Structure formats: structure tokens, C-alpha cells
Amino acid sequence: MPDPIPSPALNLLVALGCGLLIGIEREQHKAESATRTVAGVRTLTLAALAGALGSMLGPIPLAIAGGTLGALLVAGYWRVEAADHPGLTSEVAALLAFLLGVLAMTEPLIAAALAVVVTAVLQYKTRLHEFARRVLTERELNDALVLLASALIVLPVLPDTPLIAGIDVDLKRLWLLVVMVMAIGAAGYVAIRALGPRLGLLLTGLAGGLVSSAAVIAGMGQRARSEPALLAPCVAAAMASNLASTALFLVVAWTAAPALGRGLAAPIAAALAVALGFTLAFGRDAWATGDGGAAATPGRPFHFGKALEFAAIIGAALVAASLLGRWLGEAGVLVAGALAGLADSHAAAASLGALHRTGRLPESQAVPALLLAFGANGLTRCVLAIRSGGRAYALRIVPAVVAMQAAAWLAWLATRG
Hints:
Elements: H1 7-32, H2 41-57, H3 59-79, H4 89-104, H5 108-123, H6 125-135, H7 138-157, H8 171-195, H9 197-209, H10 213-226, H11 231-256, H12 258-288, H13 304-327, H14 330-339, H15 345-357, H16 363-415
């Protein structure tokens, strides 16, 4: 069945829509402002259509159209008194409308999405100015640049080859851990400012636990140490991450090998019950103490040195697991899979499930191996709680994690026969 609207006509309609959307916002701005601007709804709509038609006619007409539009915008800018001119926003918006018209002829969906983004940036001028000038501090901007540079510049160029032959540890993987800790810290920081310490940190812990509960515990420990008034909500968030991570551990194991998931159901359910109890208890304490006198603006998003320390601890755990696996021969496959939980319990669940599916690991060995991986990750969480959050933080997190492990093993022993 042929399309009801030919493709070129549809692309022209998208270009028209882009120009209209941006132009309507600029027209409203003209009506609300006492200053004059050179571009309104008609100018921007025509600019978008000029870009679309120029693109259809070829590179030379497109260049002529673009050059003419640029000259007209320059002439219009100089006609306005310097004291009355609000800036170059409308002129730049006209150029963007022209370029979006060109883009609409080949990538209409991208052009439409960008038109929405451009209009939103123009519409929320006051809020953006307020955020940049009064809300965002220089230190926050510096930390944001460190995080973005680490994730977008450093991480992509690092090699993913093992640092040591036969040891599954590479710089890219370790640096990704650093980025994760910084990102979780930054998410918690934003959540505090948006929702307050109690709810903001709790939601950050739940979401972060689906990525790495160890990273959440390290990040919350850093915040609890630097801002003691936030100890209660940080502890609640750390336990919430344990709750989410443990539930995901069971899901991963069940997906990798349903038989193992059924064998783990009772032990992990017991661990989840304990984790939920501690999360509710710590959450109640956090709510009862309020914000603990915490300032509206938390200290800082993250501490780079502590993020590096977290990666070093996980890297050491990975090296230890690989070495033990090599030294123990055939039994090393089982041991290495279990000890992989030192770094990532979800990855350990997936790898042990794969071994069971291929027949290399019977269920009688696989379920306790999964519990060992779960316990190894619990050990890592305890070490990180002690190292990152100090005594008060560790005295709350470590007993809760130990209780989760004990409940899991007791449930396994009770259902073994």
C-alpha cells in the first residue's frame, strides 16, 4: 500500500513544523519583551523552508540560501540599536531553523526532536539563567566536568586488554567502576537537592543497587563520613541498594538457569526479608530524625580519591579470584566463579548459570557456589562500608549484611533435604 503522503512532502511538513515551533516561541518572546528582535514566527518558518528547499535543489542553491540568510541576519542585527538589542539568541535560532530544515529532508525524526530541544532551551531561558548563575556553584561545575571527562574522554580510550596475562582485569573495567561510584554520588547529590535527603537518597540507593550495591555503599559511606548529619538517610539508602541488588541476583540466576533459580528461591527470599526489615528500620530512623540539620546544599557530589580506592579494592578482588581459579585446576572453575562475586555478584550468577547449562556444574554444586558468590559480594560490601563510611556507618551496615548472609545459608540448610 503506498504511503498517503509522499516522502518529500512529509519531510517538508517536518521542516515547516520545526520552523513554526521555534518561531512561535520567539514570537511570544517578542511580545513579552520591550526590545526588538530580527526573527519571529514568519522569519523562522521561512528560514526552515529555505533550508529544506535548498537541500532539495542541490549544494549550490543551498549555499546561496544559507549565505543570503546569514547576510540578512547580520544586516538586521546592525540595524537595531546596540543598547536595545537583547543578544544573538534570535539570530542563532534562525540559523538553527534553517539547518533543521536541511536536516529534515534526510533525517526528519532527528530534526523534529532537535526542534523540540531548541524550543525548550529558548522557552526556559529564565530558569536556565537562574540555574547557571545562582544554583550551580563553581565546585559543582568542576566536579561535573571531572565526571564527564572521566566517562566521555578517558573511558573510551582505555584498553580493554588484560593488564596481566590470564587475569581478567583491565583498565577500562576498573575505570568504569570509578565512573560508576562518581555517577552514583552525583545522582545522590542531585536527589538531595531535588527531593531532600531522606527520599532523595533512598531512591538513589534503590536505583543504584540495580547497577552495583557495592558502589552505592561506597558512595553513601563517603557522604555519611563527610556529612555526619546525613548518616541515617545514607544508611537507609545503602540498605535499599542491598535489597534491590539481592532481588536482581535471584532474577539473573533464574534467567541464566531456571533450575538454579528455584534452588536459590528460599535462601534469597530469606535474605530479602532481612534486607527489607533493615531497610524499613533504618528508613524509619531517617524519617524520625528528619534531615538531621543538613543544609539544603550538600557538601559535594563525590570524592575522586575514594572512587579510585573503590576500584582498587574491586580490582584486587578480581585478581585474587583469577589467581585462585588458576591454582586450583578443575576445582578452580567453581571457586573462581564463586569468588567472582567479590567484584560483581550478578556477573557471578550469570557465569555459574552458564556453567550449569553446559553441564560442567551440577545443581548440587552450583547452588552453594551461587551462595558463595553472594557471600563474597557481601564481604566486599562490608569492607567498603568500613573503608568509606567510618565506624558509625559500618556498625550499621556490616551487621545487616552479615544477617542477610546468615539468613540465606540457614534457609538453604533447612530446605536442602
